[in-house]
Amino acid sequence: MDDPAQGPWATDETTQILPAAAKKFAAFAAFAADVHATMNQMQARPVIEEIQLRGVFLEEEILLHQLDEHYIAGPDDRDRHPCRWMTVCSLLGISTLHRTDNRSLTAISPIAWAFFKNAFAMYAELIARGPAISSCEALLVMALFMLRTADAGLAAQLTAAAAHMAHMLGLQKQEYYVGLDAEVAERHKRILWAVYILNADVTHRYGIPSPLDEESIVIELPEVEHCHVFSPGDHTARLARQHRGGILRQQAFFAVAQLRIHKLLERVSSRRLSMQESTDLLEAVTKIHQELEEWKCFLPTETQPSSRAYGTPRLEMPVAILHYTYLSCISKISMTAAVLLDMATLNPDMQEVQSSTSNKIFATSRMARARCAMAARGTLDVLLRLQPQPFTHLWQTLCFPLSAILVLLSETLAYPASAHAETDVELIHDFVQYLERLKSEGCEVHRLLNGCRTIWSIATCALIASQTDQKVTVFEQTRESICSKFAQVVDWLQLAEGLLSNVPMLTSKARKFFCDILELGELDENYGDFAPEILKSSNYGFLFSN
């Protein structure tokens, strides 16, 4: 008798009779498998680890222990243990945002902010007390909350306070760990590296110098914990493990690179360099580039940034942030090289700088800028491979694709007839469509969406004008005006953050830069023009302003 579970046709018979249906079923099966894998990962990892995107420094067991102590002590005990109070309240606020459907954020956000304001109420008490490892931990968790908002200014203040606290404790010195239990010592090291990573990230995004430089820490990188982050094997199991020490270790590597790049950019921006100084800086840029490429080559092909291998998995946010950071570092060092080579071209006394470099990638300014454009294309590829995320998760990373489309707009305007121009315009449109999907899901991105539509429209006009050979037009004058502005940009990420954050030096610069390019409408002087109302602290009775 036929197996009733098999149905009237065998699988291969079905494939022969109904090929279209079979293909649809196969596609659905692949989709179902992807959803199943994602659900397994979500179930395998607690929310406390999900929200620590740059590596886990606070484990679930420690938080549960703090919660037990908090409830045993009662509601009037917060003054005796401000660090515990701040940590618990901040995490409750983050978790509230993280597990809320995007359509419900408007209703739920006041509750999350109430938790955070309870935590921040003890800030002065924490700072006035003597330094402690729990103080660093509390400041880090508060910073994690603020990084989910448009208030980058306060996030920078909190990460800097954590760095100063770590300095006072001596966490960056090996002698601090002498005599500590091995497990306790490892936990304290993870907290130090988390402080270092967040401060380096603030420096990378906003140009605010870190209290911890790349030479101040003499302890080893964090342990990977019984697993190799990028070892071949099952993607689901591997990605689920990456939130542990592996991600923290990889982010620590990038943090060192980010701070080195920041110093190089600071020196180059002065534009007053001798030939020897320029040569030395170009060699330093080349060295960082080689280290970044070695990191990339260490990964299996399917997990590399910009990989288009068959069966390339969708990315979880911690891995996507690694890719974003790598590509952003490539973009910044490429622009640093471009500025150095531009200076050499304009100054006859520095002509030897170009001939002295042995790096084929940065042989000319044009090649360096092309490398920056390649990184921008890779950044948008990361976005399109990203698994569905809560909006407050996504917000922390939207600066990367926004900076990428600005790079591609610049490339399209400068070289509208190039082989990449049409693809670049399509990539900009892909980002616009991505934002349209977010808006349809209830995310407040209408300002960002309108601005990106304008960027896409400008890029499209440049492409059409080049194809129709219409040179003497009103648009041609506009194109040349925008091109001259873009030619002065060195740091695309900071330009993007000027539209998204509330760091005054960035927002004012972005406003002047885009005043005759984008239709900005009514402005909020305290925030970038693309910052959504739902992520502004001032709307919840918590104001950080100029």
Mind explaining what this structure looks like?
The chain is mainly α. It folds into four domains: 11-37, no CATH class; 45-220; 238-391, no CATH class; 408-496 and 509-537 and 542-546, no CATH class. 65% of the residues lie in helices and 0% in strands. The protein has 23 helices and no strands. It has helices spanning 11-17, 19-44, 47-50, 60-73, 82-98, 105-120, 123-128, 133-146, 152-169, 182-206, 235-241, 245-269, 275-298, 317-346, 352-356, 365-384, 391-395, 399-414, 421-440, 446-468, 474-486, 492-500, 504-514. Helix 2 (19-44) runs parallel beside helix 11 (235-241), helix 5 packs antiparallel against helix 6 and helix 5 (82-98) runs parallel beside helix 8. The longest helix is centred in the middle third of the chain and has 30 residues, at 317-346. It is globular. It starts with 10 loop residues before the first helix and ends in a 32-residue tail after the last helix. This is Xylanolytic transcriptional activator regulatory domain-containing protein. It holds the Pfam family Fungal_trans. InterPro entries: AtrR-like, XnlR_reg_dom. Residues 155-228 form the Xylanolytic transcriptional activator regulatory domain.
